[in-house]
Amino acid sequence: MLLFIEQLLNGLQLGITLFLMSAGLTLVFGIMQVINLAHGSFYMIGAYVGATVTARTGSFILGVLAALPAAALAGMLVEMLVMRRLYRKDHLDQVLATFGLIMFFNELTRMIWGRQPLFMDVPPWLAGSVEIIPGIPYPGYRIAVIVVGILVGVLLYLLFTRTRIGMQIRAGASNREMAGALGVNIRLLYTLVFGLGTLLAGLAGVMAGPILAVEAGMGESILILTFVVIVIGGIGSIRGALLGALLVGLVDTLGRAFLPVLLRLFLSAAYADGIAASLASMSIYILMAAILVCRPRGLLPAHG
Amino acid sequence: MDRLPVNRKTLSVFTGTAVLLALPTVAGAAGEPYLVSLFSRILIYALAAASLDLMLGFGGMVSLGHAAFFGIGAYTVCILSMHGFEGTPLLAWPFELGGHQSGLVLWPAAVLFSAAAAAVIGALSLRTSGMHFIMITLAFAQMLYYFFVSLEAYGGDDGISLFARNTVPGMDLTNDTQFYYLCLAALTAFLLFSYRLVHSRFGMVIRGCKENERRMKSLGFPTFRYRLVCFIIAGAGAGLAGALIANQTEYVSPGLMHWTRSGEILVMVLLGGMGTLFGPILGAAALLLLEECLSIYTEHWMVYLGPFLVLVVLFARRGIYGMIAGGNGNHD
């Protein structure tokens, strides 16, 4: 039981990280109708900048504060130089151009930081364990990640429903021309939305830094998971992204932890472990296929 | 094809064929036998790219998971030939299935397995379209990638090597030149098949679906079935390419089906010219040769290739074939 709750929290933490990634990406998909494979690169930029600044200054907070604008600025720069020219092209062009961007960013980080992965330490004030439920100590850092993720979710909700810029973003999403005619600066708005998305990716990256190794190509593995989340949740829908992220986080984590135990009930140990390893790594894709068969547009599609 | 018009298009095709046919002789004379194996690789990737172009350029289905079928073909050959070499059965239940060494058995098996995988993946993915389709094919390919990574019995992450190239009666595949001509023959056969297919009634329906699926539906065509068959044929073509690459490198790893590989194949199609028969060959040659050349000068060649790709997308949509052959590339 203790193990189960611990794994549940781990799944929640993975889900929250995925939510930060997919919230930004689903905005770009939904609002600009553009498919962006390079979203993982901004996750990587966030992690690298965060790791470097943390190592130089010794302060994790400064690292986070440096990573966020770095990812956002890189995102806005890419939007102005490349993405802006892709909005009116078809998806194939967008896939290829952003694929080129991935190559560029991965190799660039290898040139700047070398091929060795960087490691980030958990800040000392978060290194301890907290007993949120009596008797179950859980790493403080992971709890911090969960709390930050929930806060960001609430802030996004407020931004979209309660502020003028949120209203403009929603207007731009449902009818670009009309919003433009009513005096909204669509170009600027798109740049800002793209920057917001990459900022969230950078945040996810720098928070994942102390948990995972910071290396070139780290963005791709999470990018694919993010795609699964978005497909499950429905393209363009932030609520869908939240639901999908939590589902994927929980299924993946719990599958890896408990499938071997479960299969051992029926099969011999060696055989069970082999099958469980395969099944666990495929579980979220099977989940996606199942959801797709029932609801091709995702669980909570954005528009009608 | 009543009469052959002499224009830039036929001229460039004949030149290309002549170059490919003469290559092993020239390479041998120039003392660069390495070129033969490089060009075998180019021909194999050209086959994979041509199969993708069948569904992408003519069918309008943007798949980002084509390397999955490439990898399945390669793994089929390696796994079956490993069992054939060791004399162990692959399956003991429900029926006994042994391995084999002969290419005449293994390659059709590779094609069959990748076609079967394409049938399942296609049937699920084609329920969607546009952005969803891209992401779903990508996710399925990654699923298979992780499946092979965790398949410890066949090397897992490290992959497995092929003990020896497959045998074909009357040919010695250990000879690089003979292997090169085999690849060339496979590519030519696939291109002839594609040519017939694209110009058949089936091809017309597929191209119609690309232009306007709703209209094709209203005309009474079961578009889903047509698209699925096209998806399966493309998967089978990639499986054949996979069987050849397993023989060429004599080694297979999950890296063959990583999604960046799918991306590379996609790049080849676009670079060469989408919706053309010969474009993918030019694209494969261009990308692989560019890699070879750039990696001589710098280890970080991807820093240059990436932005180059962005520029190609933004400014050179017709691809190399469009530039060389001119005219409207969509009709051949």
Explain the overall architecture:
The complex is a heterodimer of chains A (304) and B (332). By secondary structure, chain A is an all-alpha fold. Chain A has helices at residues 2-32, 39-57, 60-81, 91-113, 140-162, 164-174, 176-181, 186-208, 218-233, 238-264, 269-294, and strands at 129-133, 136-139. Chain A is 75% helix and 3% strand. In chain A, α1 (2-32) packs parallel to α5, α3 (60-81) runs antiparallel to α8 and α9 crosses α11. The longest helix of chain A has 31 residues, at 2-32. The N and C termini of chain A lie far apart (41 Å). Chain B has one domain (8-331): ABC transporter involved in vitamin B12 uptake, BtuC. Chain B has 13 helices and four strands. Chain B has a two-stranded antiparallel ribbon. In chain B, strands 3-4 form a two-stranded antiparallel ribbon. In chain B, α3 (67-86) packs antiparallel against α4 (103-125) and α3 packs across α9. The longest helix of chain B has 27 residues, at 223-249. Chain B is globular. The relative contact order of chain B is 0.18.
Highlighted features:
heterodimer; A: 304 residues; mainly alpha; two-stranded antiparallel ribbon; 11 helices; 2 strands; globular; B: 332 residues; ABC transporter involved in vitamin B12 uptake, BtuC; 13 helices; disordered C terminus
